[in-house]
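Summary for the steering committee. The consortium agreed at its last meeting that each partner would contribute one worked example illustrating the joint modelling workflow. Our contribution is presented below. We chose a case with several input lines so that the handling of multiple components could be demonstrated. No manual editing was applied between input and output; the record is shown as generated.
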Amino acid sequence: MFKKKIIFLLGPTAIGKSAIAVHLAKKINAQIISCDSMQVYRSMGIVTSQPSSTQRKRVKHHLLGVINASSEYNVARYRKDALVICNKLFRKGKVPLFVGGTGLYYSVIVDGIFPSVAEDKIIRARLSNQLRLKGNNYLHEKLSKVDPLSAKKIHPNDSRRVIRALEVYMKAGAPISALQKSRVGLDNEYEVKVFALNAKRQALYDKINQRVSKMFNSGLINEVRRLLKHKLSKTAFCAIGVRELEGYFNGEYSLDEAKRLIRRNSRRYAKRQLTWFRKDKRIKWINIKDKQRPGEIAKRIWKKLY
RNA sequence: GCCGAGAUAGCUCAGUGGUAGAGCGCGGCCCUGAAAAGGCCGGCGUGGGGGGUCCGAUUCCCUCUCUCGGCA
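What follows is the complete predicted structure of the assembly.
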């Protein structure tokens, strides 16, 4: 039977995904579903480098700026929201084109997520209290007793994951390492094509630096100042640019220092994104050379589709 | 031209007669309900060139080159 296509366009920050995606979408009758943990937030268009309004007029984009910046959002919600849209697009005869740089969000769509053990604020508060009082190793040893497999995988200092694993065990009565095995991906039902953009490291870093300057020219400072008037969700607060500028607003360092930090943290982020994508053998890599235009690159991808 | 200081990691610099560290930078990796987050690992180096002393020199001596101060 003929399988329906789902296409992913991934890549590190600032590589130029958005522009290429628009060209590609036009060619293949697709609509774009954002695969980005930060661009879902509203009023954060500049810090999160959301696609421009012209780009969004040319091709319909989904899951951009749809969540209030003070609300929590997470992988599970993303998966649910994205799949609803995906099915809607199929009904309309459109191809879903996922575009973004959040590796976990990508993986949760393609490979699935283990079933429903939601965050439990009370358990978490209790565990992080124990963490504070008794230290990293105490919690980690506790995990070793109920879920040795996960304990072996998670470093004691990675307390966020230690807490999550304990939380799951306490709520589900089963170790997270066992639950994680039951994932259902899309591969069986759909034809999944995954592309990722990359460039020479130095060229990528140049692009990042340019993007940061552009963000400042487009009014980054005002956007973040406005944002910080409200209490941001812990996720939205983590967007690169927010904390860095907050330090400047508080007089902890100069504006130049804030810019330096934003550039540096973006570089490190890009590096981590690449680590994530590199290990995924389904990805077909598209290397961008200096003067290639988005349209040409979209064409290169298009040729590999059929 | 003279006097002084220096030349060690990508950068800023420590230190030692037994072939070297620190911060920043950078590289690699992990990742399932905060993921632009969080965590782990890694010194990446012909110690400016040449000669000498010494068992042994990055360290001591001489010389050359360069850089930075000051005086002309």
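Residues 5-113+185-305 of chain A form a domain with the Rossmann fold fold (CATH 3.40.50.300). The beta strands of chain A are 4-10, 30-34, 61-62, 95-99, 190-198, 284-287.
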